[in-house]
């Protein structure tokens, strides 16, 4: 990455002053404190999982709740929360979600070798917390999507250092908690890392089978949750789904055609992601943009698909901003995020019943931008070791330059 004074990258990797960090801490503290004061039981979505664990501890089946869409292993993972008082969860869950989001951002920075004391380290997390509405929504909901937000950059960080088996184990554990990162199996397939791929599959499979034996309804996920995901028409969930398969029928497109279009777009996205993996550029950037392409393709076709899912890929892409060949250098990347600016009133789209339309715009434009960049933009990216940037060298050069000036 460039670190001279004439390039934005040089400004971003320079050390951030104490005032910058104070502002970041203030925003995160305010968001966490507000969430603690206004939510109960640590967030509505977390409450669904915890209630499922409480139901199991009381002898019932967690799959009696049709909104519990997790593997049996998640029931066991939520059991410790089920034993805690609600007043304790009110505090622990928002704090834990914010910490996990911050750690995910930290791993994304380390993946791209961006100095942890840099301006980008501060501004990136500050921008997500204050300028991207799904960040605060995820904290308020306490949704377990946060496990994927942390696991994906950690996985890629390990992979970039040659520790593919450990990376596969991280994804396997994350899938056992919430199946959101299941499409990442394709990355290990692209890389032909068979041992790591085996862990991606075996960790959630074995843990779920073992956990299922402790449930009163061991096959509940297969007999109740899967049919609900593929066939149910839940009026509540449909209002917030951002995928084309859910949004287009609300605009008059036949359901079958909408589903076909979503599947076709996802297939194109996967093909573009493979093209990015085989393309030029430093390995951290290829890992991040390939993974983003895979996950965005999955979000296009999956049911449900919510706006806070974008936090799984956004930190990975933002942390690569100093690279000249990054997708974040494209204007459409930033334009895609405009509908998610907090405090902006969008006529006819502000109500909960219509919010999914602007979420769909963000998802589709971002997925299209990443796919286009994978095929066209990466052609100009520097090869590994040429212009990719050594964060340590850039950090020293930036620090010395700051001292001289």
Strand portion, in percent? under 5%
The number of helical runs is: 20
Secondary-structure class: mainly alpha
Name the helix and strand elements from N-terminus to C-terminus, one letter apiece: HHHHHHHHHHHHHHHHHHHH
Short description:
By secondary structure, the protein is mainly α. It has helices at residues 8-12, 18-38, 44-57, 72-82, 86-111, 119-131, 133-141, 145-160, 164-177, 185-191, 194-212, 220-231, 235-238, 244-247, 255-278, 283-301, 314-318, 331-337, 355-375, 391-404.
Show the helix and strand layout.
Layout: H1 8-12, H2 18-38, H3 44-57, H4 72-82, H5 86-111, H6 119-131, H7 133-141, H8 145-160, H9 164-177, H10 185-191, H11 194-212, H12 220-231, H13 235-238, H14 244-247, H15 255-278, H16 283-301, H17 314-318, H18 331-337, H19 355-375, H20 391-404
Which tags fit this structure?
single chain; mainly alpha; 405 residues; 65% helix; globular
What does this structure look like?
By secondary structure, this protein is mainly α. The protein is globular and about 60 Å long. The N terminus and C terminus are likely disordered.
